[in-house]
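Hello Y.,

Per our agreement to keep a running log of every chain we model this quarter, I'm adding this entry. I've kept the format consistent with earlier entries: sequence first, then predicted structure.
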Amino acid sequence: MSPLQDAKTLVQAQYAALEDATPDNVAEVLAARMAPHALWRGFHPFNLQTGPAGAAAFWQPFLSSFSAVQRREDIFFAGHNEIDGGQSVWTGSMGHLMGLFDAPFLNIPATRKIAMLRYGEFNKVENGQITETAFYCDFLHLMAQAGIRPFPHQTAAHLIQPGPRTNDGLLTGPHDPAEGAKTLAVIDRMANAISDANTDPTARTPAQEMAENWHEDMLWWGPEGIGATYTIDRYIEQHQRPFRSLMSNRAFNGHVMRIGEGNYGGFFGWPNLTITNDGGYMGVPANDVRADMRVIDIYRRDGDKLAENWVFIDMLHFLLMQGVDVLGELKG
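Predicted structure for the entry above:
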């Protein structure tokens, strides 16, 4: 098999094994395919971990709180990392971890009902082992399912977010490399347009900027605290304009990885952005703190433009840097 297919087989085997894991053996399950010194990146409060025991810092409490866990995967693909010149192979996955929320998790009260933890994940595979992982998930959205909404006035909507409209996101087999290259080219063009707008916001209107790279009926599946939005005009109204007008001095820190296969692609950073909330974003009082955003973006391309974008932002870390300890406040 090709390196991409080998990586897909390994990661899918890891996912299957995790479905049968328990809090007591999950570190051993992870170790079967994860290198001893693998780097694991997750959202606050798990942050940066090392090796299977480090990754188990998330999985042990999660599996202790959730029973009958299923991975409801909507997108899966692989590619050669554009950031390192194609030297490394990564897989990408997006969906929900579904289970029965039977015991408190991160101070979030249990509901004893179905709960869906929305996730985006990338895994680097080398020599038959997972050597790096970025596992980003939406803890604010889990809180909302438990009836806790610390940011009730978000500018867009948040639902249980579906997979691709085209229902073709599970790329388990090989695909034409030229199609993945097209997807990466559109993602690169879009990212450059954002950089240009940051440099000179008066050069083009937001609608002109968006129309170059996005279909008019684009879907932006944003995280809890911001929400999802639909069509270019509503995206500008419900996310782009508040984001750009209420926060300043946006610094792009680069991506760790960027891959594409078929019509799907994505990237992540650690952190992607550093910005200043000097306008009172998400209801947090204006301040002069330079705060980071760790982000995963996964995209679906349709033709020569982007059609859908699933976004994961470490809101808890971003807010904590500004003195807002969302999880800590749940203890009270």
